[in-house]
Write the structure tokens for this entry.
Amino acid sequence: KAGVTQTPRYLIKTRGQQVTLSCSPISGHRSVSWYQQTPGQGLQFLFEYFSETQRNKGNFPGRFSGRQFSNSRSEMNVSTLELGDSALYLCASSFPTGASYNEQFFGPGTRLTVL
Amino acid sequence: QQQVKQSPQSLIVQKGGISIINCAYENTAFDYFPWYQQFPGKGPALLIAIRPDVSEKKEGRFTISFNKSAKQFSLHIMDSQPGDSATYFCAASNPNTGNQFYFGTGTSLTVIP
């Protein structure tokens, strides 16, 4: 079974621009979560989508948004980029089992650099 | 505000030694505590996880020790190998927030041959 794929793997943007990142979950997985990883901060939760609906949202400004399509693929968008948005953006998918915890499978991430 | 605090930030261990990474949390609603291993250029991968109804879980060379009263948990890597060199993250989740995981800041482990 193919793993979680993220595209592109690397991006370089300038301040003020916007960017869209894509995530394809493991086949059959319906939950997709996004995390921002920076040195010293670890992984910070951005949001989770399940069945095309945002189920949870972390403490990030409204410049960060996302969506999920009917095939469970997800995109996240960052508008008006700031230097501090430079990070590794990770996508994780899981198969909801109804338990309070579900193993999350992470993709390799998209490395975003804002100049 | 970091809901899960992890230490040390970096760790160097001789081959065959024991690596110990510690995490602490405040939110008593957390009920699932996974550890993730991340190699450069890769996403984190689940290593081992524990729930608060047990005090220890062992899988091969990896053991989680959990102290509910102290709100602390730790990862022990026995007989550490150079291939274990990676960044390790502890995490916690709250049943009220589904798949929203709170991660520690990570520990960079280097195992010297």
The interface with chain B takes residues 4, 31, 33, 35, 40-45, 48, 50, 55-56, 58, 90, 92, 94, 100-109 of chain A (CB under 8 Å). DSSP finds no helices and eleven strands in chain A.
